[in-house]
Amino acid sequence: MTSYRLQTGGLIDRQTPLSFSFDGKRLLGFEGDSLASALLANGRQLIGRSFKYHRPRGILTAGAAEPNALMTIGQGGRTEANTRATMQELYQGLEAKSQSRWPSLEFDIGALNCLLSPFLGAGFYYKTFMWPAPLWEKLYEPFIRKAAGLGKASYGADPDSYEKCWAHCDLLVIGSGPTGLAAALTAGRAGARVILVDEHSVAGGSLLCETASIGAASAAAFLRQAMDELQSFSNVEILTRTTAFGWYDGNVFGAVERVQKHVYAPNAALPVERLWRIVAKKALLASGAEERPLVFGGNDIPGVMMATAMRTYLNRYGVAPGRQVAIFTTNDSGYALAQDLEARGIVPVAIVDTRPLAGTTYAGKARVINGAYVCDAHGGKALSSITVFKNGGTETITVDALAMAGGYSPIIHLACHRGGKPVWSEEHSAFLAPLNLSGLELAGAVATTAGIAACLDEGSARAARLVGELGFKATRASFGPVEGEIVSPATKPVWSIPGVKGKAFVDYQNDVHRKDLSLAVQEGYGHVELAKRYTTNGMATDQGKLSNVNAIGLLAEARGISPADVGTTTFRPFYTPVSFGALTGAYHGDHFQPVRKSPLHGWAKNNGATFVETGLWYRSSWFPRDGETAWRESVDREVLNVRKNAGLCDVSMLGKIEICGKDAAQFLNRVYSNAFLKLPVGKARYGLMLREDGMIYDDGTTSRLSEDHFFMTTTTALAAGVMVHLEFCAQALWPDLDVRLASSTDQWAQMAIAGPKSRTILQAIVDEDISNEAFPFLAARKVSLCAGQLHGRLFRISFSGELAFELAVPAGYGESIADALMEAGREHGIQPYGVEALSVLRIEKGHVTHNEINGTVVPADLGLGKMVSAAKPDFIGKAMVDREGLTSVNRPQLVGVIPLDPTTSFRSGSHILEKGAAATLENDQGYITSSAYSPHVGSTIGLALVKRGSQRHGEEVLVWNGLREEFTTGRLCHPVFVDPENEKLHV
Predict the structure, then answer these.
(1) Extended strands (E) in 100-184
(2) For residues 722 and 983, what is the distance between their CA atoms, to the nearest angstrom?
């Protein structure tokens, strides 16, 4: 193939030359070129290597279905592998590199696989790498992983931005060819809100390569007039460079817009890609049809190209595919290409037509060979000749380019994204979209309509009816006669070509050839889904856009059935690859998720807090003071001060749920494993929620504020999960109960005041008596604050093991109340403490969090077996919690762990081994769930889940961290290190 730039013609701007590079070599193109057209204009036929055999490959198409011309574009963080050269616009300074080759494209050592091809047929992985078994990890897997993949991702951070948008319209038109343009014009003129999307850089579809005239104007002139009119409408939005990749429930369409993928230096103020979620009242799919390749020997040699692609490069880009061009066709579209070539002074050397007679009158100069087939193409890195098979004989013809025209497959992918199955049509020799699609209609070539005139008329008619159903008055447009077009109706497909000797490829990207599919049928993998996985046909980045229908036809022939009986594989989004950047949008780095600050965030910041991300929240981790050089110094001080004086901690992040209704108590009695039905008003109770399988789901306190009003707190981690769980229980399990739920997490600022002096400090702002007699442990009431200026909720509960209270006030008053408490406690030594100190305090007290409630424990494992009520008739988890395996004496149970040498330490996650046991997981007895340095104990302490842990207090063990190879001798003990008799709680 000796492609070259024509002296005139095309829609490119020859006054704006662009310099770019391919594999380090500088080349020239023009504004309006694609990377593929510019490479062809520079005579580059070899542009890549195939994945499996590393065969030379050239450009096959001019659009999104391209399987061969995959490039790596850009540098550094903007490096993008597997970019289709056919879709990449040329820009000044573009740098492209070929893929799947080493050390170079011209000399690829991987091409040795061609010599091994007899042994590398379909399924060879499954047959070869089964034995000897020890070689899998040592040889096979490392080798396969190294060979796998297309292109190389960059390790550099992406410097560009992405965004997501919503859009709403009356009519969404997908595709801007003749059908789509006519539809958009008709709906736009009627005043409907229209969005027109097209994946190419400019609108027009097939009109961009068409030489026919429409209403006395050339196709290009008609396109300009139509676009000028559409752009004049304020109710019409045109999104070029935008691929509609999926159709979802609610008539929502996903689309990705390549905003700045066509510039060398993107504008930092704009995204490089934009993800659209388009909600359409009505949608019209005008995506056209994809030309099918023909499966003959050597059909992958550079120089073999789709006929419509040749027309595109010739008429849109002004690039001739070669000087000795042959055309292999099963329909009349091959003659349209011949007509265009001759108009450019290139007479095809032959038109090989599989039919005895063409369906159109051809008056050109090319030799026509009817009833014949191209059975083989020859050449290495470029096409040199073809072999024509006719009536049992062959003829060799010298060529440098060959066009294939094997019929058309409607691009129905979007229409099948919501579960519909394509339907095979013998009349049209194609799979058609399922019927009765709600919200989406098809028009144009995707609906098997052939010819520009028919497509214009159908697009206008469908749009007029669709917007008419929405109340708009629309009239069908008239665009005048179309002249000079060769209409190509459907013809009988040709699956198997006689006389083939070379490899006849079906899936170009994965190197699946005709014999692979025959082998799949022979070995029992003839079902379309099994054949796909056995051969890997249709599993590459192009998802079989060119190969699937041919593969189905060959499977049908091999099995002696119709393509309708073979069926298709499942169509799923995305239609073409979508970048992670587009899917992520702005949600990465600091913007990965919204910053959620508690009502006391400002107070903590004013007090010098160091913050840490915990789930969705920013929590105060510790409060450093002058002279403290390490976080441990701050945490130790805070812990000791709580035990000696008092501390204030922000606990607003706990989930808070209001539960109301006359059946609220009954509802909670069924949700929790322990009893709540008779909880007195003004009291709080610690509760356990179980899953249906008996495992602990969450824990927390629930207070009864009035007869039919409860206030539940949950763990921070599962606040949303518990809310969903409760809603499910109320709506699905027990809809007969009178109960209402409301999340109030953001409505309350909640603070813990803990320590021996906490009551004295609190009493300074609480109007009611909170003495031990008046407000005992687990009391929960509404209180008056600051001489009646404010009302809040006060709970006498403790996570630290000290005399403690939790005070909840309306969120807007949180900081002022916290300041008031700090002022009142100044003389009593109050200090703020953070989540690190809180963690130390709770470990010292043996309180559990989700470090221990890990989804595999039941209440008895944590020493909470008495909280499983035997008297209640039912609660969630009751039926499963007493299963044999959950009551075994060998269950992991909660214990405390201390090092024998106080100067040593251990880490959370470390394994517990018996004394003297080898450091292997076979000897594992359990693991450290939580650990911290305890200034009260004077050493590291930990909580652990250990087999038969409650029976092993006092046993010496080995604590082993296999990741860091750390070994610490320790002793198992009671999990409560401070005040095991709970005397401080009742002071």
Answers:
(1) 162-174
(2) 32
| Average pLDDT for the chain | 94
CA neighbor of 46 nearest in space, from 271, 301, 343, 267: 301
Q: Which residues contact 573 (CB under 8 A, 6 or more apart)?
A: 245, 246, 247, 248, 254, 417
- Which tens digits make up the pLDDT trace of 315-351? 999 999 999 999 999 999 999 999 999 999 999 999 9
Residue 849 CB: number of other CB atoms within 10 A?
Answer: 19
Give the tens place of pLDDT for each residue, 613-661.
887 899 999 999 999 999 999 999 999 999 999 999 999 999 999 999 9
pLDDT digits (tens, 9 = 90+) for 777-824: 999 999 999 999 999 999 999 999 999 999 999 999 999 999 999 999
**985 token code pair:** 């709680």
What whole-number distance in Å separates Cα of residue 444 and Cα of residue 289?
A: 9
Measure the CA–CA gap between 731 and 709, rounded to whole angstroms: 19
As a whole number of angstroms, the distance between CA 571 and CA 560 comes to 25
Report the percentage of the chain scoring pLDDT > 70. Answer: 99
pLDDT interval class at 137 (50, 70, 90): confident
Q: Is there a contact between 605 and 818 (Cβ–Cβ < 8 Å)?
A: no
Tell me, rounded to whole angstroms, the distance of Cα 617 from its chain centroid. Answer: 24
Per-residue tokens: 478: 């008239």
Q: CB atoms < 10 A from the CB of 302, how many?
A: 25
Residue with tokens 């009864």: 704
H-helix or E-strand spanning residue 502:
none
Tokens of 61: 């198409």
Cα 285 from chain centre: 24
Q: Do residues 537 and 512 lie in contact, with contact meaning Cβ atoms separated by under 8 Å?
A: yes
User: Which helix (H) or strand (E) covers residue 333, if one does?
Assistant: helix 333-343
3-state secondary structure of 508: coil
- 100 residue type, one letter: S
pLDDT-derived band at 119 (thresholds 50, 70, 90) equals low
C-alpha–C-alpha distance, residues 682 and 386, integer Å: 93
- Residue 276 near residue 254, CB atoms below 8 Å: yes
* Residue 76: both structure tokens together: 């550094």
Q: Give me the numbers of helices (H) and strands (E) for the chain, helices first please.
A: 22, 53
The answer to whether 193 and 469 are in contact (CB under 8 A) is no
- For the chain, the distance separating the N- and C-terminal CA atoms, rounded to the nearest angstrom, is 94
* Strands, sheet with 596-597, edge to edge from the N-terminal-most edge strand: 596-597, 617-622, 610-614
CB neighbours of residue 879 within 10 Å: 12
DSSP-derived 3-state class of residue 643:
helix
Confidence of residue 873 (pLDDT cuts 50, 70, 90): very high
- Give the span between the Cα atoms of 940 and 276, in whole angstroms: 53
Helix residue ranges, H only, 645-778? 664-671, 719-728, 758-763
Handedness of CA 785, 790, 796, 799 (dihedral sign): negative
Residue 475 to residue 464: CA distance in whole angstroms:
6
Element (H, E) at 686: strand 683-690
Q: Give the three-state DSSP class for 666.
A: helix
Contact 490, 448 (CB under 8 A): yes
Banded model confidence at residue 707, pLDDT cuts 50, 70, 90: very high
Which pLDDT tens digit goes with each residue over 204-248? Answer: 999 999 999 999 899 999 999 999 999 999 999 999 999 999 999
Sheet holding 740-743, edge to edge: 683-690, 696-706, 709-714, 655-660, 740-743
SS (H, E, C) 356-372: CCCCCCCCCCCCEEECC
Instruction: Write the CA distances from 403 to 36, 406, 443, 487, integer angstroms.
Output: 16, 10, 27, 18
For 524, other C-beta atoms within 10 Å of its C-beta total: 9
Residues 6 or more apart in contact with residue 438 via CB below 8 angstroms: 251
Instruction: Indicate the range of 23-37, 473-487, 640-654 predicted with least confidence.
Output: 473-487
